[in-house]
Amino acid sequence: MNDPDSGVKPPVSGARDAGDAGRPKRSRRRKGKQKGATSPSAASLSAGQAAGSSGSAERPKATDGGDTARRNKRRRRGKAAGAENVRPLAPVGQREASGEDQRQAEGRRSRRKHRGKKAAARTVPVAAEAAVPHPATAQAVETRPVSHAPEPRREVHSAPRPAEREGYDAPLYAALDLGTNNCRLLIAQPTRPGQFRVVDAFSRIVRLGEGLAASGRLSDEAMDRSVEALKICAAKLKNRNIRRARLIATEACRAAINGEAFLERVRQETGLDLEIINRETEARLAVSGCSSLVGREAKSVVLFDIGGGSSEIAVIRIGENRSSRLANHITHWTSLPVGVVTLSERHGGRDVTPESFAGMVSEVEAMLANFDCPGDVVRVAPEDFHLIGTSGTVTTLAGVHLDLPRYDRRRVDGVWLSDDEVTAMQARLLSWDFSARAANPCIGPDRADLVLAGCAILEAIRKRWPSRRLRVADRGLREGLLTDMMADDGVWRRGRHRRNHRGGPRNPAKPEGQAS
């Protein structure tokens, strides 16, 4: 049928035209339309033309059941979609979700994406940047789960050296030295051969020998100060499982009339049993304590310990066969009955002038003149000879020389000072008044009146045995006591310092350890 405007007019009711009878079927829906298109369509067309409709002819009311069913189906689809436009259903998997279904789908996609990121983070290649392996030995890259949970906070410790870890269960040894000026305690474990690790320590200036040179007796105030310090030492020893201990007293108790009575009081009030050692033992212990500071290149050494009431000096000559105990190489020794406390009391240690300082040096030189020892030790091989000083005097000089903000044993012990540096430091201290010495952090008010007396003793020793260099030792009798006790017990013999890795030493008498 021809339309005057657009040519052939399409069928209005969805029925196929007579010219479409031979076309192939396109779809099931199309086939349904063909079944519903019968003679009433032609009547509809005639009625539309008769009415003069050009493009929007009114649809006739179909009485046939197929048209009614199709209309009802389209109506139901429209109501289900909830929209004016009825869209054909897409294949399963391509349908657009609406409302709550769309939000649920987005949530699922988000969760899947988040799980994918976490899985990728947990699976980290161990050798991500490793070199490409040879094809013959190539293997799949190992993957390990990595937890992102925060690790528990741990205490930070410096990593111990292997031998330190081995010596944790070694036996404990204790050494106490009650001197004229100080009360000192060390508790330590044996470690590598000839060395030990300090577990606990105590040191306090008690001035037990205060006033001893004038009266010949220990004063009540000095004894009270010493007993209080010894009570602290007794508590430390009681809280430890000490295998062996040695407690000594030196010059103050040796020289005092009431020295033995004072040690009996110490036994009653603290439970500590101290022994008074002689001067030769004191000199040997000082050498034993400093043996690790004497290098293999040294052939002769003069070691001195400037104490509060006495000063010990040992001349050491080392031959080709060096003994494990340096004290075995002592050729000459002496103990001067003078120390920083006794010398400062006689000459005045608070206000020291160049003249009074020279007087102290002269007194010590006169004592050394009576020491029968060859003075040409340094002339044999000057490059193989040096001095070792173990006392508060030389450690103070080293601390001031290093300009330390506060005394640091780790930086002082073992440091070398040249002969010119020692001379310069003594002149510097002599130029300071008492307040300037007390203000220095390496001297302090407790040593401000003693340090120049110690410098006078040092100057007399340097004049007797000139040396190009001096080595400073922040160690002494306590270290010597510990070294001797450990050596006597054989804790450093081969195999005795090894640990049973299943826990504890194989034999309590065979500990192991590490150097401090």
From TrEMBL:
GO terms for molecular function: pyrophosphatase activity. Residues 58-70, 97-108, 150-165 have a biased composition (Basic and acidic residues). Residues 1-165, 493-516 are annotated as: Disordered. Residues 193-487 form the Ppx/GppA phosphatase N-terminal domain. It holds the Pfam family Ppx-GppA. Residues 41-57, 121-141 have a biased composition (Low complexity). Residues 24-34, 109-120, 493-504 have a biased composition (Basic residues). This is Exopolyphosphatase/guanosine-5'-triphosphate, 3'-diphosphate pyrophosphatase. It comes from Shinella granuli.
